[in-house]
Amino acid sequence: MGYFILALVLILGVTFIYITTRINKLESVTRDKNAEVDAGIWDRGFRLGKLVEALDKAGIKHEIEAPDTSAFTLGTLATMQSVTSEQLDKADSALQEVIEKHPELKKDAEFVENLEKFDMARKDIFKASLAYNKSVSAYNGFISSFPGSVIANLRKKSDKPVFTYVFTDIKKDGSIM
After folding, report:
1. pLDDT digit string, tens, across residues 74-128
2. Which of 122, 140, 161, 137 is nearest to 37 (CA)?
């Protein structure tokens, strides 16, 4: 009987360690994917700032507001990332209107380079947000099912929010591509 209890305690201990390690690993992956979204948002905000500076320097009137991404730090909540992504896309739409009215901007190599990097950062954010949501789904699924839920509850782990902004391309007529 003593060996049985010892074996049971050993099995429970190994199971506890395995589940705790799995939760920590899933959480770490989620944190890394969240940081990739943060980096993309920061880069896109930085590039938008450079583009706005170029417009100001050229004396072109505009109403483009670049969101303050300097306040962004690693680990920003996905809900805040979604709001900032939407602000950046609205600024992008306004920027495209300005570029359409001022085609001479496309002759400035630095402006074009920043515009290309600004667009590339959007694609990077999209890819990173998909990877983040996939990792969040795995994490949330694991901690909400038995036996992960028991250990997650003991360690006070809770669900992570998903990145909810929907990336769409909007045509001039307002339709979605």
Report:
1. 667 888 888 888 889 989 989 999 999 999 998 989 999 999 999 999 999 999 9
2. 122
User: Residue 49 — φ and ψ, nearest 5°?
Assistant: -60, -40
CA 138 – CA 141 distance, rounded (Å) = 5
Identify the H or E element spanning 38: helix 2-57
Cα dihedral 20, 21, 26, 27 in deg (nearest 10): 70
Query: How many Å is the Cα radius of gyration of the chain?
Result: 23
Task: Report the predicted TM-score, pTM, of the whole model to 2 decimal places.
Answer: 0.83
**What letter represents residue 4's amino acid?**
F
Residue 51 class from Cβ within 10 Å (0-12 exposed, 13-18 middle, 19+ buried)? buried
Cα 36-166-85 angle, rounded to 5 deg: 50
Q: State the pLDDT at residue 79.
A: 83
Within 13 A of 84's CA, how many CA atoms are on the CB side? Answer: 30
Q: What does the pLDDT look like over 39-57, one tens digit per residue?
A: 999 999 999 999 999 999 9
